[in-house]
Batch of 4 targets.
Target 1
Amino acid sequence: MLKVPFGRLSAPQRLDRLNWKDFPYKPEVSFRIGYDDRGIHLEYTVDEQAVRALQDTPGGFVYEDSCVEFFIQPDPADPHYYNFEWNAIGTMYLAWRTGRQDPETAPAEVLQLVKTESSLGAEPIAERPSEGPWTLKVFIPLEALWHSGLKSLKGLKARANFYKCGDGLKVPHFVTWAPVSTEKPDYHRPEFFAELEFTF
């Protein structure tokens, strides 16, 4: 269980599980998470050998770029979860679903609610050697969980996982926070999510 603090960010959490032997490369990745009355705050720090961020249109295939992801199931009794995905310049993909095959992608007005700030700026980046760690700060307002109707996160016990990937890089990689026991890389497996508790 990860306790999510109110009004501040957690201590850095390492995102360092290698679950698939065919993909041995592991970038150095950590995240911090917190929340307030308005929503969830995230901060990722990534040190990888190469960086790519070609997608600059929300809703695109950001998982092909240098990408960090946050999947959250607000109500463990409801099989639906949200998959938030951002590339290194903050371009986002967001959907509500029960698995890989059934996404309801977020409408434009929901995508616009989520705020990002990347240390690499917002211009597209063709794959190049990394010049050092990059950071991505994210704010997810409650309204961006548009099917959940949440008015507060205080006391919520949700399930989630955090990921780093780069499907389209010269050295593809797939790293997770909570372990995923599948034969091939598959992040859309909520049975492997771990518990988040929003404390107060």
Target 2
Amino acid sequence: MNCLFRGMLLLPLSVLMVAGCAPKYDYTIHKPRVVYQQPSRQALKTSLNENLGKKYIWAEEGPEAFDCSGLTYYCFGRMNLEIPRISREQSEEGVEVAFDALQYGDLVFFDTGKNFTGTVTHVGVYIGDGKFQHASSRNGGVVISSLSESPYSKRFITARRYLTDEAHAQQTLGGRD
């Protein structure tokens, strides 16, 4: 009887302990639903505008909350453009772009770590006039910042173009050769 009583007591406690130790976040990468069959600057602008002000949550790729690379992954994925999920990997693909040649839709990468080591830790989307949109842990959400403000002005690493002129021309011409 004593053994039965202990078993009845231990089972609920075990369940509670396991439930309390369960992971808080779902780290599965979820591909965004494709909304625009062809990539374009206008489609990107629409996606960025729809997500401005949404919450920052690390390891989220939308649609209700984002981390920095989750936002870029989501917005480009909605345009049927598959890019890597992690900012460091995003910075290694695409076409490299010089800082003074940035165009709307280029991804801008930074090292925002405590000690500048030159390692990509943050990404945003260049939106023109020296500004970029990004999911900011510091600001708690998707915001627009200036490339000239600290820490971004001193922590810029590289820029990459995934939304090429060919992709934009393809959309404008309706897919004609």
Target 3
Amino acid sequence: MTSLWLTRALEESRARGFLGPGAIEPQIQHAEGFVEAWRAHRADPPTTILDLGSGGGLPGLVLLDVWGHPTTFLDSMEKRTNFLLEVLAWDDVPSGGSVWRGRAEVLARETRGDSRFSIVTARSFGPPGVTAECAVRFLHIGGLLIVSEPPEGADRWSATGLDQLGLVSRGTFRTSAGYKVMEKIRPTPLRFPRSSGTPGKNPVF
């Protein structure tokens, strides 16, 4: 059952234009797909969670509601991060949520972010090579990167490109949507992520 605070938060996010105009419930179900994808690969819930490019709060707010473990919302937009800070301050919201504002490729190199997280999620952050490069340093060894994918279609993720980042594909988990699952199997090479804006201009794949 969806928590009242979560429905209220997502309705407010939609009203402010941070989410699409569609019904809230399908968007919650899509976010819950990240949980199902994790459970298909791990028996225990993640202890530290990062939502990359949180935007209006999906899937991060749903992950906080389901798991109740420390969840970090990362976004570069001031209006969106201010909204998330508002929501996390509500009395009925689970504790443990935090908001980081800035470029992912910069924040990944900070001590607080480097190799800290069990899972990094991305709903609509960017193309595959950009998402993988910006996400990988946040993960500890054995952590999973889970990215929302189209329901059907060719695999967009280069095995060679993932390998140079220290990632390996664990396949695509499918419900009504697709979720690409990747595992970090070795430390991130020192050159990744590259300087601010470079991953988008010159993707690794």
Target 4
Amino acid sequence: MKICIQPVGDVDDEILKFLKKKLGDVFGACEILPKMDIPTYAYNFNRGQFNSTLILKSLPKVCDIVLGVAEVDIYADNLNFVFGEAELLGKRALISLARLRPEIYGLPPNKDILKIRALKEAMHEIGHVLGLTHCENKRCVMSFSNSIIDVDLKDWKYCEKCLKKLRDRGIYLKI
């Protein structure tokens, strides 16, 4: 399985390289695509945020899974914000680093925290693309995150129950 990371706008290169390494280790192959512009039509002036669904739909379908990575604040439907969004059993997923950064919560910048949070959200949204829904196990990466506290509580890996669902679909990961 090949994962392609699609930078959407200017994205921290260190985070992209970290995701490439970790996702490549898990899924087998990963590459970083050339940066694409953030679709201007996805910006909601009333909210001061970008619509994640519109960005998601703008991602190219060039690999088995395309993971868009953006730095802008995103929202979906009637939610105040989202950390990411994905096409269930589709080809595309999107994460935003904006609300994963410690400094948005009044803390000093910390690349190590940002990297692990980005990995958790990437694994979560890729899990949706692979057909996984939200898991009731709060430690599983497929657990729903309503806040950064929820992100920090969970692991970056799928629980045994979620791994079994993937294996039942013929998807074997190196976790």
